[in-house]
Structure formats: structure tokens, C-alpha cells
Specification:
Layout: E1 2-5, E2 13-17, H1 23-37, E3 46-50, E4 55-59, H2 62-72
Antiparallel strand pairs: 1-2, 2-4, 3-4
Amino acid sequence: MITTRHPKRKFKYKITLEQAYTHEFTHQVRLWCNAVFGASGHSNVWRFGWTEQSGAYYFQNEKDAVFFTLRWA
């Protein structure tokens, strides 16, 4: 897991789950995020994106990023 902070962006926290690059696991994580944080997207509090070998989850606030990390780390 890699966590980065981008203070000038809308989604300030990026969490990358490198070890979990499977469609099934990613689907479970995204369902959980939708249930806990609401629908994803650029206008909401979290969003999902792909990198070359992992899934990246972006959060607007630190509390949500920490909660996500505690659940999926």
C-alpha cells in the first residue's frame, strides 16, 4: 500500500493497493466504498482510478483515507 498526499488537488489523498490487482477484490473494495462513503466520482468525496498494476483510491479528506486504510491495509 502506498499513500500519497496532494494538498492542492481536490482529492488530497491517494491510496494505492498494489497487492490487490484482481477484478474480484477491486469490486469488493468499490462496493464497500460506495456503501460507506456514497457514490464515487469526481464530484464526490472519493473516486477510483487504475494505474498500470494497481487500483488507486482518492479521497478528499484525511478521515476517510485513514478509515479506508484501516479497513483494507
